[in-house]
């Protein structure tokens, strides 16, 4: 982990400004656009070099779309993404392709993320050869190094993906992401498809790799468990928007947004002494993302909702601990809400 | 097709795939490749194995026809329409040529038409389907409508008309079948590409900066090979029947070159049907055996390559 | 639903136009032109040229296409090169026998295929299942013409039970029994092909349904196997079977061409062969166009039928 005090003085490696990714909904005889799903709807955050930012939220909140947009798998509708001080959304051409190599992704499902027809060797060699990362005669040595980095025996390189377990496959996926020596890796729920016992191993591997290779991570997850363990800071997302960002301990000790509080209530804390007595259980369903009302997206489920929440959209405000909520400083209502 | 194939991806069940170290070492020794698994499953399909053997024998006959044939298949002999004898094993045809030797040589025509035309249309269909599926949008829309147009004509009808325009000959039949057969392949490939495009390993290749043609040919198409191979196998059987039908109608391979189909042309006369069965029954049976063998091989391949039967 | 139908219709229109263009291109690739067919053989090149000009054959292709389309839309398909009759009239004469043949073949083919396929699926890997699989492969692998010749050899020549071809005995006036006798063999040949294809399909569809969880539930409830198969499974298995009948039409038409030739059945198939032999392109093109339209309509009906039968489609 990077020392919390130095972080703020370093220029961020990734800066995301007002990022929006919308999908259009087509309907009817002529496939006209009848609306759009605002999967990511104005997201701002930054990640410093060597840092891990956790991005959490329930499924469908757009967290994976953020990751996919950053690596270019989804087309951004609006916004800017500065990576290494270059705008990677508007730029194109071979220069941009080179920059993009420094931004890689690890997928959630270790089964669909490896081509069943290729041996481990082929999977890892291809990007190295295509981009001439090392001299042709050194490619094989580089593959050995990658396997060693992720803790797999060299002998595995002649085998096919179906011969491996989920955890081993995920290690291969990590080795592949490392093959181009990236600076930033987007970990899109890399452990949620794995067994609990394996999850810890993979998380430790990622932490070790971060230290060894000076990597920066955007760690996407739906639960707080893994994120707490690996992240320096955590961003909480709800329906396409970030509702709160803070250092990990801040989020856990002093959550501000009612949605974060609800997520924390659902997170089991082993020591009963430390369990907070407050418990927020949100009711109702997530609103249909293709038909959002004005005002706060969380309005319909929020125990602290007041009239302004229905009419106006709260902005992410605050220097050290930004929160997007009108009720944050509303002590009375806050406590009343908790007693509900 | 309404009998919907279940999704290819194996179910996520981490427990099932969790090996301990000893198991891994054990697996190292086994090293069972994809192809060996497929081969093993194919060999379990008895009819398919028999079909493959029969097909192999027919191929041998086609290659070594000059050495097996007892007579010159084009030689006109004294006896017209003679019944089977020691001299002419399956008798002679109405012009006096040896039926047995002609049947052997005709196997070449059937196999050439079958493999040749299927090869042509599989290549065309794969390219069109892959481009259509990968790039989508307007290109896809146009290609698919063209495919619809081609598929609206009953195949045999179009082939008959086109043959009547360009003239019947072995080469023309192969080319025409090849050029007209692509739509079903294009549909098949497009469907597979569409679903593979969304799979993570393809997305990973995109993020790794692999070029689009390379993704298409090296990552996507190899995964389409299985259904394509099955489709092509049944296609060969179908093409052999179409050639035989065309030749039977006199619109296919022209004498003196012998084809199993054109050897049956004489049987359009009721006298030949009733009094000279050696002229039409043997070549007919050869068609049935060959087509049956190929269909069995196709069925075996389908079962062996079926992702549903992985375990 | 209405939107789905509209959408399918709108897709069908460009395809239909594509079909006419494709057809028109083939017409124009054919050697010879109508003038040489109709004009006095002694006509001088100048006279022929004059006649071509008069018939508009020197106009640009696009104009010729629209002129052809225009007469097409008025039901005018031109004149047969061989009989000089209007093609529309010839087609109408020949359509009846072909529809009769195809309809009966489809009916009997399914009548064989559905029960056998279901039985085969419920007794998977039994001797009956293997026999059925063997029969269906044979049905797919025998060319129509060979099966037809074999049928004639056995039933007409050897056993002398049935006529060798035609629609009725010449000069007899064609009583009901006579007609039926003439129908048996060609229907048998076509139906065998359909049954061969459909048995596998019915079997696969039934196996698919039999493996579903709701059938396990039905069994767990204590329902008898007979009820499970025939009430719960059959209904769901039949939906895909019945609805895709339309997709058989192109193959059925191809099969009809050969079968009609073998049995000299005076339908559109035989007309096709005769037109090809006499290079009667207007007739040929009309047949091609008509069959393409039939196929399009059949596909359209299949789609609609399927979406009605399977509620899952409607929502997409």
UniProtKB/TrEMBL annotation, chain B:
Any one GO cellular component localisation term in the record: plasma membrane
Membrane disposition: Multi-pass membrane protein
Transmembrane domains' residue ranges: 47-69, 111-135, 156-181, 228-251, 278-298
Keyword Oxidoreductase: no
Any single Pfam family the record assigns to this protein: BPD_transp_1
Xref: SUPFAM superfamilies: MetI-like (SSF161098)
InterPro entries reported in the protein's UniProt record: BP-dependent_transpt_permease, MetI-like, MetI-like_sf, Oligopeptide_permease_AppC, OppC_N
Domain ABC transmembrane type-1: from-to ranges: 107-298
Domain of life, source organism: Bacteria
Keywords: Cell membrane, Membrane, Transmembrane, Transmembrane helix, Transport
Cited Gene3D superfamilies: MetI-like
Main location group: membrane
Biological processes per GO annotation: transmembrane transport
Cellular compartment(s): Cell membrane
Family designation: Belongs to the binding-protein-dependent transport system permease family.
Protein name: Peptide/nickel transport system permease protein
Native organism: Sporosarcina limicola
TrEMBL record, chain C:
GO MF annotation: an example: dipeptide transmembrane transporter activity
Main location per the UniProt record: membrane
Domain ABC transmembrane type-1: 95-302
Any matching Pfam family: BPD_transp_1_N
Keywords (A to Z) from UniProt: Cell membrane, Membrane, Transmembrane, Transmembrane helix, Transport
Domain of life assignment: Bacteria
Transmembrane segments: 9-30, 99-122, 134-156, 176-196, 237-258, 285-306
An annotated GO cellular component: plasma membrane
Presence of keyword Cell membrane: yes
Stored PROSITE patterns: ABC_TM1
Record's bilayer topology term: Multi-pass membrane protein
Matches recorded under SUPFAM superfamilies: MetI-like (SSF161098)
Gene3D superfamilies per UniProt: MetI-like (1.10.3720.10)
Location(s), subcellular: Cell membrane
Homology family: Belongs to the binding-protein-dependent transport system permease family.
Protein name, entry field: Peptide/nickel transport system permease protein
Taxonomic placement: Bacteria, Bacillati, Bacillota, Bacilli, Bacillales
